[in-house]
Structures are given as C-alpha cells and as structure tokens.
Amino acid sequence: MSMGLLHDLLEARTGDVDFIAKNYATLDETKALEDQFAGIEFGNDLLKTMQEYENRETVIAKCAKDADTVAQMYLEWLLSWRGNKLAEKWFEGDYQHRVPHLHTESAKTLALSMKDSNPQEWWWSEFVEKNINLDHLNSKK
Fold first, then answer.
1. What's the 3-state SS for 36-78?
2. In 3D, which of 53, 49, 64 has the Cα closest to residue 104?
3. Are residues 138 and 71 in the same domain?
4. Is there a single domain that holds both residue 68 and residue 43?
5. Which of 95, 50, 105 has the alpha carbon at shortest distance from 72?
6. Are 14 and 32 in contact (CB under 8 A)?
7. Domain residues for 103?
8. Is residue 121 within 8 Å of 129, Cβ to Cβ?
C-alpha cells in the first residue's frame, strides 16, 4: 500500500517531467529520494520501498507499476470519451506501447477491456435500462 501511495512523491522534488522533456532533462532522482526521507525516523524504510518500486523486481513493485499505468490509461480513456483528442491519442499510444509491457495478466486484461468498452455503460444499463429511479431523468421526486 505504501508503494502505491508514495510512488509519485519523488515528483514533488523533481517535477513531473513530461514525455518530451525527459529526452533532455537530467534528474538526480536518487538524491531527491534520499533528501526527501532524510531526518525521518523510518526514512530508510521508505527509501527501500521506493527503490523496490523503481527496480521492478518484486511482484509488489510490478503490481504497483501496473496499477499506476492502468490508472493513467483509465483517465485518458475517460477524457477521450468526452471528446479530448489529445487524450485519445495518448490512450491509443499507451494501448500500443505500454499494454504489452504490463507485468500482470490482470492489468493486461483490464487495459485491453477498456479499448472496446463504453465508460458510460455501467450507469446507463443500471439506472435507465433496468428502469431504476427514472424519476431523476424526468425531474420528478
């Protein structure tokens, strides 16, 4: 849980460097992590957790990275359904270039299921097609 919670904390010190800038910027992420947790009684434990995440050698680290990737793709997917063309382009790119590199089958299944699904379907089928509480649609209480 701590790995999932803290995995982006490094960006508070280094900035959230975008895809283009990463081709030019040099960041000292090791120093940033060490400085970030210095002086905290359990700082070494946090540092080890973040190093584990970055190394992606344990099942937990792989699951945490997959969760981060799928969460990003989910946001892009939702925004693309709302008409955001840039989000659609990012989603298609992630679908092509990131999904094959996901570590867990569950993450791959979830990411692949987004491709041809509709984010509105769950509530439409639940509240409209099943005729549950249609009074809200018709301005009645």
1. HHCCCCCHHHHHHHHHHHHHCCCHHHHHHHHHHHHHHHHHHHH
2. 64
3. yes
4. no
5. 95
6. yes
7. 62-141
8. no
Domains contained in the chain, number: 2
User: How many C-beta atoms surround the C-beta of residue 45 within 10 A?
Assistant: 12
Q: What whole-number distance in Å separates Cα of residue 89 and Cα of residue 74?
A: 13
DSSP symbol at 103: S
pLDDT in tens, 20-61: 898 999 999 889 989 999 999 999 999 999 999 999 999 999
Is 101 in contact with 95 (CB distance < 8 Å)?
no
Q: What residue type is assigned to position 7 of the chain? A: H
Give the helix, strand, coil percentages of the chain, each rounded to 5: 70, 0, 30
Q: What is the reported pTM?
A: 0.80
Q: Are 37 and 47 in contact (CB under 8 A)?
A: yes
Q: Kindly report the CA angle at 23 between 21 and 24, in degrees rounded to 5?
A: 70
pLDDT tens-place string over residues 62-73:
999 999 999 999
Give yes or no: residues 105 and 137 share one domain: yes
Cα 59 versus chain centre, distance? 17
